[in-house]
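Handoff note, outgoing to incoming analyst
You'll be picking up this chain. Sequence as last confirmed:
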Amino acid sequence: MNQKSFFATLLFLSLCLGLQAQDFQGVRGLVKRRAPWLNKSLALKKVDFSGQKDAFTLSTVAGKVTVAANSPSAAAFGVNWYLKYYCHRSMSHMGDNMGAVDKLPMVNAPVHIEGLAQYRYALNYCTYNYTMSFYNWEDWQKELDYMALSGVNLMLVANGEEAVWESVLDALGYSQREIDAFITGPAFNAWWLMGNIQGWGGPMTRKEIAERAHLVQQMLRRMKELGIEPVMQAFFGMVPSSLKNKFKAHIVPQGNWLAFERPDILDPSDSLFTRISDLFYGATKKLYGKDIRFFSGDPFHEGGKHGDIDLKEAGIKIQDAMQTAFPGAIWVLQGWQANPDKHLISGVNKKDILIQELFGENTQNWEDRKGYEGTPFIWCTVTNFGERPGVNGKLQRFADEIHRVRNSPYASLCKGIGIMPEGINNNPVVYELMLELGWHKNKVDVNRWVKSYIYARYGKTDSIIQQAWQYLLQSAYSSNLGYAEGPFENILCARPGLKITSVSSWGSLNKKYDLMAYKKAVALYVKAWPEYKNQQTYRIDLVNLLMQQIGTEADSVYARVVTAYTNKDRPLFDNAYNAFLSLFDQAEALLESTPFYQLSTYTHQALALNKDKTVGKNNLLNLLMLNTYWGAVDSSHDALHEYAYKEWAPMIKTFYKARWVLFFDHLRDSLEGKDAPAIYYYQWERDWVTRKLNQVLANPGKPKSDSENLGKLASQILSNLKY
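Most recent structure output, in case you need it:
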């Protein structure tokens, strides 16, 4: 008998003797909520795996599925391991497959797994707005259950800071109007906390701020039960730009972030910094507790100016203030672009620093900077920017890079892995793989791993879907796509023009993957309809895959439009632009089949969060702005439009198609020699938001569902696409 078998046998016998004790009540609650059919047949037991990080052993003892673990997080992930690899069940942000199984599978031999990653981290500041701006407690319960099942033990909490700052500014003598000018609206707090903007999308009422704080308090209690530590906001010197008019202190104006005035930075060496940090952390303790260990905050994020601030001294002072308030606190910093500046972290106690290698799908800052100059870090992926739609993710690269880090000279500094999407309602395979990689000792072969993923996602599998995924791994999920900021984009959603290379300012239309392999994958998914049509997860994926194929077709048709116009070929132009517009109609019909892809799903969420009609109206305005023009007060600084575009019905027709119709009418007038003044899209988009706002307030509507006809529609659309 080898050592592992001996250990497993001993554990098995100990479990047989101690099954009466039931531990991990938070995980028990999770099971009751998400898999109630498993609850009575599940035993959870706390054990001490001497010298090991988070670990669990899965077995069947006395007819019960038994998870023995040394932490709530390991216990939750052990439950998930059983659900995925034995019951073929899974949760995701794009549908769940959590129905009861006919008969609980036995675990024939104990399975022991240790988490190699000390930290399994989740969320980006931006996720809190592109995905979670209007989450209620029910939404957060599901989110936290998903995170726990995925093994997450460290998660950013970027809501609720409004109440902290309200307390700080009250103490500094600010009026309500002055506070309103600083705190953003509910869909823009991410960029406020990162020091990029202030006030935009506001104001929030005091009641709204209090409700958001209460929601965070509920989250923190549940996170503690599930073994997920929060990463809360640090005070790093960000202050309202109005502070310099009230106090004499060394304050460095930060200028603009794109179209927005940034908050200022207060020199951490100034005595006023100490006063405000005391107020800030005091309010944090009062609102959210004294046992917080992790704090996030990046001074000079994305182009901030440090002026004559001594960066080394600033880093020391920021950390000292944090440690004074919360002894043993760990400062979390983003490894993004030039962040964190090496001078900022040169004098800090590095054992209490954790850097996020944020953009791992494209960068290797951990290596270029020699382990961030000897600083603990975690390896993360963004994958998605602005929650823009699209099938993408460099799956094998994730596995390869994590394996490479673990076998590099900086292995001892790598403390874990993480997911940092700007929006998470996309590509569930990415987030599942990434978080599971924290538990695999050997390098994962994604071609093999994905077979179990498919089975758990749909609750069944066959050669058709398996082959489709092999094509996806050769195309949109390939690791050989070069540099890309998120998915390749859909030109249907672009602001019209004759020379379009991207939809968003930092995206790309250039689909670098194997287009024929991708189309084969889509065709196989359509073919699988009769067998999988009753699976919600399959229907959501089918629509997603087809929408990307429609986008590829649109690229080709758009090129014909441009050629015809350039050559002044009116018949060809009419034919091409009609073909282009017909793609919107096909897309609209497709999106109307599934509530996940409908604007009304999200407007309802925004309106339902608050009973106050004024607050609800502002929620709705925030939602519509964010997902169209984002925000700008000057048309010459308008780079953020379409940064968070969505493929939602009816927006695909009423916003994107309507905008293209304006453009084509303009081109047709030009071809006919008529006066064709330029179209002022900047104002048109804002007018659309105002109209839609009023329409939704007058008639909120409800999401539609037409899953019965989706299979036939998908076949028709695929047969119509020529590319």
